[in-house]
Amino acid sequence: MIFNHFEIKHLHHSNHKNHPNHSIMSHKLGKYLALSGTDFSGKTPEQMQQLFRQSLEKGMHGLCYSAYEEGQKPGDILTIDQIRRRMEIIAPYTKWIRSFSCIEGNELVPRVAREFGLKTLVGAWLGTDKALNEQEINGLI
């Protein structure tokens, strides 16, 4: 599940009894906070795996997505085939993905996500290298 501070704040403030969508907002707020309220302390690895499996089977609204495979790192070029392989694994469990870059093969993520019926929140990785920043920003546009 992915959500940001704004979404939680918005749901919390929209959860006012006089709000026309009060019951909808209460339900959404409960779903978001139910996942974050799990106490994992004292759980065995097997119990944690079971909790993870239950969450996965219920589905998640969205996931942060990276197509990098073992041994790869940012800066390595991603192929459309590896993006599809990784997307195929997560597609049954989510509706949205968030990506972190628009260069080095990451620009293919939204197209592949669409093939799997997923929506995207596309990000750009900005740093101190102005040339790379420019490529990232152009990739967003």
What structural category do the secondary elements indicate? Answer: mainly alpha
Termini Cα gap: 26 Å
How would you state the average pLDDT, rounded?
79
Helix fraction?
A: 40-55%
Number of domains: 2
For this entry, what is the oligomeric state of its chains? single chain
Low-confidence stretches: 1-34
Strand content: 5-15%
Number of helices: 6
Shape: globular
The largest sheet, given as strand count, sense and whether it forms a barrel, is: 3 strands, parallel
Brief summary:
The chain has 141 residues and is mainly alpha-helical.
Could you explain how this protein is built, in words?
The chain has 141 residues and is mainly α. The protein folds into 2 domains: 1-37, no CATH class; 59-140, no CATH class. 48% of the residues lie in helices and 9% in strands. It has helices spanning 5-14, 22-36, 45-58, 80-90, 109-115, 130-140; strands spanning 60-64, 94-98, 119-121. It has a 3-stranded parallel sheet. Strand 2, helix 5 and strand 3 (119-121) form a beta-alpha-beta unit. Helix 1 (5-14) crosses helix 2 (22-36). The longest helix is centred in the first third of the chain and has 15 residues, at 22-36. The two termini are 26 Å apart. 11% of the residues are buried. Mean pLDDT is 79; it is low at 1-34.
Topology:
Layout: H1 5-14, H2 22-36, H3 45-58, E1 60-64, H4 80-90, E2 94-98, H5 109-115, E3 119-121, H6 130-140
